[in-house]
Each structure stands twice: as structure tokens, then as C-alpha cells.
Amino acid sequence: MNRKQRKIVLTAAVLAVLFGIVPKVNAMHIMEGYLPVSYCIAWGVLCIPFLLAGFFSIKKRLQTDRRSITLLAMSGAFIFVISSLKIPSVTGSCSHMTGTGLGAILFGPTAVSILGIIVLIFQAILLAHGGLTSLGANTFSMAIAGPLFSYAIYMICKKCRVNKRVSVFLAAALGDLFTYCVTSVQLALAFPSPDGGVALSAVKFLGVFAPTQLPLAMIEGILTVIIMIGLEVYAQPELKILEQKKEEA
Q1: Residue 54: which of 122, 109, 135 has the closest Cα?
Q2: pLDDT digit string, tens, across residues 54-90
């Protein structure tokens, strides 16, 4: 990003913090109308700086290498398909794979925020999966927090010289699980337990998610490794270019 773009992202981040701090906020696809209005607005505003950073990241990537649009589109399609396969879980939400780890590994976490919000909008409108009022909360958990964690895990593994396929598996699986940790906190903030408050409520939500989400996270990790193996065979030149661009950044 150039200096002007950085200023825009920074300004958006400051505004997000200012607008996100509302009295009630101290307190995986969340369904339409489930969250209170103040939480819907707060989570939506908090997503803005990440979405701006993602837009500038994709714009810069496509300006320097138009061929990467194919892999970018594939990453978005993977997120759409894999996150549409949902299992009913805790009231107001569901369990499913996220698919965002692949995009985070290939393009970095900020780019996935744009892919994620596009997927969430299409799913809310076409599949009644999630919702438009809960779009901000779902975007933050699945398209921002999850990819950031996946990317961090992948880079840590890379620096520690962990086997690449193991790194990909851990990044995808743990990113999936972290998404649901964030979702549990989001639900707990909106619906704290009368006895133990937000902390106890978050533990309860995690307890309900865990039986279905743990095996799904393992499956997502395996699928992501399989796709990476396929890309290494059929898209080696594109992967090399992506690696070079990440090193330059």
C-alpha cells in the first residue's frame, strides 16, 4: 500500500475503534436477526479497516500480476463451497468448515476479508445462510479473525522450518477452530450467562460447537493440504510468483 492508502486504512481503524466502543459492546454464520442491533453495527464498523486493507492488497496484487486472478477466484470459490456445507449447532448458528486458510496462505489475511464478505453476502441472499444484519459479525469471525490466525500459524511454522504440508494443515485447521472461538465470544457478548457472565457463556457456546467443529477442522486441514498439493503440480509458476510477491512485501 502507498502512503495515501495507509492513511485511509489508519483513519478507518481509528473510526472503527471510536464507533465500536458503545456501552452494550462491553458486554459461525450467525443467523439473520439473532444479534441485537447495536452489536450488528459495532461488528460491521470494526470490519471496515480490514476490508479497506484487503481491497488495496488485492488491487496491488492484480496490478503487478494479472495471472493471480485465477488463484484468487479459486480461493473465493473454495470458501463459498466449503462453508456452505453446514451442520445445525448452537441456537442461532451452525457448524461448518470455513475454507479461509487456503486464501490466507496464498494471498495473505487481508485479501481474504474481501473474498469472505463476498461469499457471506451471496450465501445470505441465495442460501439463507447467515444474514445481512449479522454480516459484520460473520465477516469479522470468518473472514478476518480466522484468516489472520491461519496466516500467523503458517508463518510461525515456516520460520520454525516445519514441513510445508504440516504447516498448511495446522494453519487451515487451527484457523477454522479460532473462527469458532471468536464466534463463541461474539455470541457470549450478546447473550451473557446470568450466573457467570460473558466468560461462562463463551465456554458454554464453545462446548456446544466443539463436538462438530473439531472433526470439521481436521477435515478442512486435510482438504487444504490436498488442494495445495494439486496447485504445486499444476500451478507451480503461479505459486512461485505469489511467494516472490510476499517476500517483496
Answers
A1: 109
A2: 999 999 888 888 888 889 999 999 999 888 877 665 5
Q: Can you spell out the DSSP letters for 168-222? A: HHHHHHHHHHHHHHHHHHHHHHHS-BTTTHHHHHHHHHHHHHHHHHHHHHHHHHH
Residue of 45, 56, 18 whose CA lies nearest to 137: 45
- The number of CA neighbours under 13 Å toward the Cβ of 169 is 10
Owner of C-alpha cell 445445525: 88
The DSSP code for 33 is T
First to last CA, the chain: 9
92-106 confidence digits (pLDDT tens): 456 788 999 999 999
CA distance 78 to 119: 10
Residue pair 75/115 in contact (Cβ under 8 Å)? The answer is: yes
In three-state secondary structure terms, 223 is helix
> Which residues is 96 bridged to in the sheet?
86
Q: Give the integer Cα–Cα distance in Å for 29 and 125.
A: 13
Q: Compute the distance between CA of residue 229 and CA of residue 5 in angstroms, rounded to an integer.
A: 35
pLDDT tens-digit readout, 166-216: 999 999 999 999 998 998 899 899 889 888 889 898 888 888 777 778 888
